[in-house]
Amino acid sequence: MIIIDTGDRIAAKAAQMARPEFIAAYPITPQTVIVEKTAEYAETGELDAEYVRVESEHSAMTAVIGAAITGIRTFTATSSHGLALMHEMLHWAALSRLPIVMVNVNRTLGPGWNIWADQTDALAQRDTGWVQFYCSSCQEIFDAILQAYRLAEMEDVQLPVMVNYDAFVLSHTSMPVEVPDQAEIDKFLPPYRALWQIDPDDPITYANMVPQAHYGGIRKDMQDAHERVKDLVPRIANDWEQRFGTNHGGLVDQIQCEDAEYVLVTMGAFGAEAKVAVEQLRDEGVKAGLARIRLFRPFPSEVFWELSRGRTFVVVDRGVSVGAGGGIYTELKSALYGHSTAPVHSFIAGLGGKDVTYGEMADMVKRVAAGKAGEVEWWGLDGQGGA
Amino acid sequence: MAVKSLPKEELMRPGGGGCPGCPSSLALRIALKALGKNSVVVMPACCAVVCVGPYPKSSIDVPVVSMAFEASAAAASGIVSGFKRKGKEDTNVVVWAGDGGTYDIGLQALSGAVERGTDFIYICYNNEMYSNTGIQRSGATPFGAWTTTTWTGKEERKKDLPAIMRAHGLPYMATAIPCYQEDLFRKVQKAMSIRGPKYIEILAPCPPGWRFPMEKMLEIGRLAVDTGAFALYEYENGQLTFNLKSKSILEQKVEPKPIEEYLQLQGRFAHLFKPQRNEEALSRIRAELDENWDRMRKQVECGVA
């Protein structure tokens, strides 16, 4: 069935169809609709789940952790400052190897208050051990949430997964989405079977003090699980495609990269814009392509090693690690070092939700092609235009 | 009921890491006798979680959920829901937290969980300081007490968290102290019999933190009650009921012992007596105690709490 709805309502629908048994969430613009809609599902019986209306995002993530250690499937959603408030418990969830799925609507951090799109909120959580997806359409939001559960709960993964998408550009924009039957979803995502749980009949102490000798191994196990995620994400995406017909491109969605000289690299809703920029550049005779990152953690380094030969990367970042550079740019440079000498140009653009059109992205590529671009450029700081 | 009539089964096993004379360890041992095996104990960062012992060992024979400092009550919310889904609604979900994790950093999560009517027992062992980090001031530290962040004595009075808890309209609240084990046991049992959020505050005289010899832990506890520094009571259905010696003090059937008898045994109050008595501070302590008891008497008389 095709439904036309906003990113948030599609996310709530996907969460409902994943049949979580527990939801705890706290509203924050522009994620609020997910909190409202999932509460409605739980109250009307359209979702058979416990729903706890917590008093903060920190408690939302904590309550979800508490429920997850009893061995049930859980869901929550947040954005921006809410995600920042959760930070401590994001580490707690990942180090506990709990397969929690959370939607994060990428929104600017204050001050000053700004509710529009910016990926710095989630980029700042890249060291927490969570798998991170970034979506560029409502269909991808729907598919990614259900695929995230399948991935998170696999025995050799057991990691929390964050599904990200842009504030308003996706959260509040209606698009047509193919929604499969619940019975088919249930076949793709069977009921959750926890590998361990808190149980008075089999008492264990969870998360007590860990001596130095054991801690490093816990981190290494997480790293190994992240490495396996790189193999599993495309396989799960292919399985989904065979069942439901949609596929958004594995780790990195590559558009016209085969013969490209200039490859735009971005993620989230910018990816949809960049796709049009590539079409425009091709029309103008520029051999351009797009590598839209779907999975930021683990970072798909191997894909870029392959892709890098004879190409120049033009990164468009809607998020910045101040003191280092654009989020994708710094990761990509690090990944390529020792594997490729492909030039990487960085455009930091659209922070605070400022609009960046496909025409501007095409201009970035042309600027690089003309040899006029520095390695790092801050785009559109004129105080004009945008939202 | 006598101590020897408490259940023989020990859910606190040998090998725990508590200091000699640890009031929290004794209180937890008694509480676990009441709670029994069908229980889960959530512990934030605090002394007790250290006492459980490091991975891969545990000295507690029920599941212990170690939790971030400010988060215990929220974790309990999730666990209660999870057990509901699993058909284990009869399992006692208990938080065992210090006053740092309760009065201060954990107050938001506690308030939220109680307001939501979460069916759990929150037990605060209150040693009136951040003990696990080495004796720093907390919101529960009384006026005049030395800590490593109040070198000349705390200037403010302690927060009245029990009153804040009662203001949430919770069905049951009680205070207890490890020197009266039967009273503590009975109050935990009572809490287990009631649905919804329950709060129990246990005064925990801490030998290293309060600066007194470990063998005096029970004696100091009794003095806390006898001098009126600590009141034993229960709150149920909006009514306060005082217990043991505190009942006699409330009803003015006995005169509380002079507060100096309690203070002088504790090194944390030594500066109130040496090199000379600080009469101003001592009279403020006495005045605050009188004020507290007058208020509690009025609350009982008027049936408001």
Description:
In chain A, the strands form 4 sheets. Chain A has a 7-stranded mixed beta sheet with strand order 3-2-4-5-7-6-13, with helices on both faces. Chain A has helices spanning 7-17, 32-44, 57-68, 80-95, 120-123, 138-152, 182-188, 212-244, 270-283, 301-307, 327-336, 358-369, and strands spanning 2-6, 22-24, 50-52, 74-79, 101-106, 131-134, 161-166, 174-178, 205-206, 252-255, 262-266, 288-293, 295-297, 312-317, 320-321, 325-326, 344-348, 376-378. In chain A, β2, α2 (32-44) and β3 (50-52) form a beta-alpha-beta unit. Chain A has 387 residues and is of the alpha/beta class. Chain A has 12 helices and 18 strands. The model of chain A has no long low-confidence stretch (mean pLDDT 97). Chain A folds into 2 domains: 2-244, Thiamin diphosphate (ThDP)-binding fold, Pyr/PP domains (Rossmann fold, 3-Layer(aba) Sandwich), CATH 3.40.50.970; 252-378, Rossmann fold (3-Layer(aba) Sandwich). With 305 residues, chain B is of the alpha/beta class. Chain B has a single domain (9-302), classed as Rossmann fold, CATH 3.40.50. Helix content of chain B is 38%, strand content 13%. An 8-stranded mixed beta sheet of chain B has the order 2-1-3-4-6-5-7-8, sandwiched between helices. In chain B, a hairpin with a 2-residue loop joins β7 (233-236) and β8. The longest helix of chain B is centred in the C-terminal third of the chain and has 24 residues, at 279-302. The relative contact order of chain B is 0.12. Chain A binds chain B through residues 21-22, 24, 50, 52-56, 58-60, 62-72, 74, 88-89, 92, 198-200, 203-211, 214, and chain B through 37-40, 42, 49-50, 52-56, 58, 60-68, 70-71, 73-79, 81-86, 88, 91, 108-109, 111-112, 115-116. β9 (205-206) of chain A pairs parallel with β2 (64-66) of chain B, so a sheet runs across the interface.
